[in-house]
Structures are given as structure tokens and as C-alpha cells.
Amino acid sequence: MVRTMSLLRALISTARMIRHTPQLAVGLPPDDAVLLDAPDERLAPALVAAAVGEYEPAAKLLAITRESAEWENRDRYVARLAAFAHGRDAWLAAWLRAAPRDPDALLVRAELAVRRAWESPARAERLRETGPLIDAAADGDPRDPVPWRVALDHARGTHVPHTAFESLWEQAVRRSPHHYGCHVSALQYLSAEWYGSHRECFDFAEQAAHDTLPGSLVRALPVRAAFTQLLSGEPTSAQADRIDAAADLAIEVSAGYEAGDPWPAEIRNLLTYVLVERGRWDAALEQFRLIGPYATSFPWTCFTDDPLGRFLETRDGVKIQVASTMPLSNRAARRGAHGHYA
Description:
66% of the residues lie in helices and 1% in strands. The protein is mostly helical. Helix 1 (2-24) crosses helix 18 (307-324) and helix 9 runs parallel beside helix 11. 39% of the residues are buried.
């Protein structure tokens, strides 16, 4: 009898999935329309030009972000340009030859050097060699917090003590108190994987979220702390409550942006992973709808060399999970207030 009931439940679940999974795809772009780390309309022309060795569009874009103090955009663009230069840096070399003191070129050079050093087997030694490049980038424009974000990443890899790290953090927030990239770098330093603990990481993230401006991505910082907690294994009951609260706050932040907006895409990808790990399937599916075509490498590269494939597999899995919990028929929805069919 028990085996019969188990088989019956499995058959009903399968029938639900077959019935409902197609309709749950409404609002989700097809697999071949999903892009990984797609650049926005401002960055795309700079990357296209860099691909043919031309640096002028990148120089113009970063100059605009610096002159107008668009520090969040500047940080993202510098990171993407440095990632591109990692494999094709002729355009950056030409830029530095033409304008060796350009603060924007110096910043991309510093970011690239730190990225390359992080990948070296002699990481700490290579990172120490990049120190003068970061100093040069910081001197380029004293207002700019982005070199200090690079310095925070550098400090994590060179094993600086908490006191030295706090000094760098003070310099960063003096320039931009709510800069998301600097907060992420500080959170990584304070994580249990590096020089802190899960409690310290969460405390920092929650305080930063409380202190920041409405609409700032820093309000979603606790979901990054939740992610690091989940990576360490099954959370305790108290930790699970804190993770769910972080996810709820990130859902609130996500709701403040339009669906398909590339700006909060990484936060939404990260939030979706956390929701999946917590078995919150309906909320995860809603985030996939808000993500639209904008898959991001993080967090999926933490688990696979095929982040886009992992994103799409997870999205399919969430649809199946949601479908399996839906009623097999819609009779219940057609019942009147007293249990009679309408």
C-alpha cells in the first residue's frame, strides 16, 4: 500500500509538471535569448572598439564617469574593460603609450595587474608588485573611490592585518560612503573564507544595508553574506532565519528596478541562487522573470565552468519545482465561496 501511494504521488507530480511547466515559461526569454554578462549600451561600443585595437571610446567613457562622479558605473566599466584586456590588451598598451598619465588608463592598468596577480601561483608576491600601480591610479584623481576598491581587493590577497585594512576602508568610504564595489570588497575580507567569520560578515552587511541610501544596491549586501554562509554547509536554524531575512531584503531591492534592467542583474542572479537553496521556488521564479536575458557569471562560476548552462539548468529546475506543487486541475479555482462550482 505504501509503495502504491508513493507511486501515485510520483505520477501526480509528473502530471502536474507536464501540465503547468509550459505556462510557467511565460515572461521568461527563451534559452537562446539569454546573454552572459551582456554589456550595457554605453560599454558595448567601447568593447567593440577595443577588439580592433582602438582605445578612444573606452577613454571617453571612463572620462565621462570620472568627470560626472558616476562611481558605480565607473567601477563596473573598469572591471569589464580590465577583464577584456586580460586576453587582448593591445588597445590598453596603445592608450598608455599615448597618455601615460591618464588617470583612467592608469586605473584600468591597476585593475588588470591585480586580476592577473590573483591568478598566479605566487599570488601574494605578484600582488605586492602591483602596489605602485594602485598608488598611481589613486593619485590620478583624489576623489575617485574605485582605486581604493582595487586596493581593498589587493589587501585581501596580500594578507594585510585588520588595522591596515580598516585604514584603506576609511579612505574608500571617505570618497563614497555608499559605494557598492568597496562594500563588496570589504565583505569578502571579513568573510570566514578569509580573515573574518560568518557572524562578522553578516554584522557588517546588515549594518551597511541599514545605513545606506534608499535604492542603493548596498541594501542587498546581506544576501552576499547569506551566499557565503550557504557555501559553508547546511545553516543552523538561527542562520537560516538570517539568510531568509537577507533574501527578503534583496527581494525588496530588486522590486525597485524594472524587469530586464541590466544594472541589478548580478544581485538578482545571486538572490535567485539563495532562494533556490532555501527552497523558495515561487520567489526564485519571479526573480528569473525580473532577470530577463541578463545572466551573470557570478554566482554560477563558483560551481561550474559553464555559468550560462548552470543558470539555464537552474531556471528549468525552478519551473519544474513550481509546477509540481500546483493543482493538477483548476477546479479549486472555479469553486464558489461555499464550495460549489461557479
